[in-house]
Structures are given as structure tokens and as C-alpha cells.
């Protein structure tokens, strides 16, 4: 199995912190976000890792010269789904774990995906409620719907949520694709995609695929996980560490 890390974006909500470095090189707890992901992936047993770069790619390459690289030449005009398609060469060859580059997690999250036998799976964070309450004045402004059936198949994701107790978890930015499912997804994106691919975020794609009958397995995860969207997130996590 291989791993792909999506590291093309600037992270404009980080403001001046990403003026000269991409968001994935923002330091948290003494090392860049990207180092947390690479270490967790390698600890899980995956050594073939590709980064999809964009904004200030040379800053990433100079720090991680031993990685395999794809480059999103239109990073400033595209979103996460389009960035993923730049790594299609790998997605068509072998099972791939895909990770966002602005999150921190333990290797067991990667192992969940590696050990799952389904073609298409994502992890979801079951302990999201307290984290969202700490990060946001009104958690419902940011949280998204997430529903799963008795077989562990996701039935809804990424929509507006009305109450925290109606949500069964939160999407973590970790996915697994087999080549077989990627070919199916490719066909659906080419033939029926309802909006421009360049601007589509990942949860919108997942919800679209669910509506097209694609089965996505949800794997519950409750250990360390965090995402960095803003400078206030960084401050919260640093204060949490001190406590």
C-alpha cells in the first residue's frame, strides 16, 4: 500500500503565517504538520509516500527530499478533489491511503484504513464534540453532518447540521482508495459531475458519490486527532499542551 498527502494549498485563513511557507509546514508542538503525518504513516508500515504540492513547493521539497512528488500546477484555482487527481498515476496502480496535510493523528488511524478490506473507506472522529466546542463559539457554524448505517456504511456527510447530538462523528481528512474504486469514481466525475471539479471539496464529492450509490465504509477513531484551520486553532492546541 502507498500513501498520498495533499499539500498543495496555501491555507489563507492562517493569514501572515503562510505568507512564505505553505500551511503544511506550520509548526505545532515542535515540528511541522507534515512531519506528524509522515511519521504516523511510516509507523503504520507504509514507506512509499507521495506529496501533491502547489504553493511554495520548493520549501517542501527542500525539507523532505526523499518523498515522491506530484505537483498541482493550478493550486490557486483548485480545491482538494482536483489536487488528488494529480496523483492519479498512483491511484490507478495500487491501494492508496490519502491524507490531508493540515491534520495530526496517530498511526492507528492509518492502520484502520490498511486493515479494512473494502474498496473505499474513511476514518471518522468520534470525540469531535468537545473539540468543536473548544475551537468555535458556535460549533454548528463549522460542524458537518455525518450519518452511518448499521453496517458501517456512510449514508450522509458534509451537509449542514442542526444539532451536535444528531452527528455520529466528523470526517478526519483520511481516506483509502483501491484502483477499482478510483476507476469508478473517475467515470462518475467525468460523466455526471454536477459542478466544476476544480472547485469541489472532498466532502461534497463524498456526498455526491453516496447519492450515486457508491458505498463508503466509515471506520471509527477516538485517539489523538486535530486539524489546524486558523491561528486561533494553533493557540488552543498550544494551551492544551501546556495544561
What do you see in this structure?
This protein is α/β, with parallel strands linked by helices. It has a single domain (2-242), classed as Spore Coat Polysaccharide Biosynthesis Protein SpsA, Chain A, CATH 3.90.550.10. The chain is built from 9 helices and 13 strands. The strands form 4 sheets. A 7-stranded mixed β-sheet has the order 5-4-1-6-11-8-12. The longest helix has 14 residues, at 179-192. The protein is globular.
What strand order characterises the main sheet? Answer: 5-4-1-6-11-8-12
Which structural class do you get from the secondary structure elements?
alpha/beta
Q: What's the helix-strand series? A: EEEHEHEHHEEHEHEEEHHEEH
For the record, the CATH class is: Alpha Beta
- Strand residue percentage: 25-35%
Number of strands: 13
Which features does this protein show?
globular, 243 residues, two-stranded antiparallel sheet, alpha/beta, Spore Coat Polysaccharide Biosynthesis Protein SpsA, Chain A, single chain
SSE diagram, text form:
Blueprint lengths: L1 E6 L19 E2 L2 E2 H11 L5 E5 L3 H7 L4 E4 L8 H6 L2 H4 L4 E5 L2 E3 L1 H9 L4 E6 L2 H8 L8 E5 L5 E7 L9 E8 L1 H14 L9 H10 L5 E5 L3 E3 L3 H12 L1
Parallel strand pairs: 1-4, 1-6, 4-5, 8-12
Antiparallel strand pairs: 2-3, 6-11, 7-13, 8-11, 9-10
Amino acid at each position: 500500500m502507498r500513501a498520498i498527502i495533499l499539500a498543495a494549498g496555501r491555507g489563507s485563513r492562517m493569514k501572515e503565517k503562510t505568507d512564505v511557507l505553505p500551511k503544511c509546514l506550520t509548526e505545532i508542538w515542535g515540528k511541522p504538520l507534515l512531519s506528524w503525518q509522515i511519521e504516523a504513516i511510516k509507523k503504520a508500515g507504509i514507506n512509499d509516500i507521495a506529496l501533491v504540492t502547489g504553493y511554495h513547493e520548493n520549501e517542501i521539497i527542500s525539507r523532505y527530499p526523499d518523498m515522491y512528488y506530484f505537483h498541482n500546477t493550478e493550486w490557486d484555482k483548485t480545491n482538494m478533489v482536483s489536487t488528488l487527481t494529480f496523483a492519479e498515476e498512483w491511484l490507478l496502480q495500487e491501494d492508496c491511503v490519502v491524507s490531508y496535510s493540515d491534520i495530526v493523528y496517530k498511526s492507528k488511524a492509518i492502520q484502520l484504513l490498511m486493515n479494512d478490506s473494502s474498496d473505499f473507506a474513511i476514518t471518522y472522529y468520534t470525540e469531535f464534540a468537545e473539540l468543536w466546542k473548544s475551537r468555535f463559539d458556535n460549533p454548528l457554524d463549522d460542524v458537518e453532518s455525518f450519518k452511518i448505517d448499521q453496517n458501517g456504511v456512510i449514508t450522509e456527510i458534509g451537509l449542514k447540521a442542526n444539532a451536535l447530538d444528531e452527528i455520529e462523528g466528523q470526517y478526519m481528512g483520511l481516506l483509502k482508495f483501491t484502483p477499482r474504486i478510483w476507476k469508478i469514481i473517475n467515470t462518475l466525475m467525468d460523466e455526471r459531475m454536477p459542478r466544476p471539479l476544480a472547485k469541489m471539496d472532498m466532502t461534497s464529492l463524498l456526498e455526491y458519490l453516496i447519492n450515486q450509490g457508491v458505498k463508503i465504509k466509515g471506520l471509527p477513531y477516538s485517539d489523538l486527532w486535530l486539524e489546524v484551520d486558523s491561528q486561533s486553532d494553533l493557540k488552543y492546541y498550544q494551551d492544551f499542551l501546556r495544561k
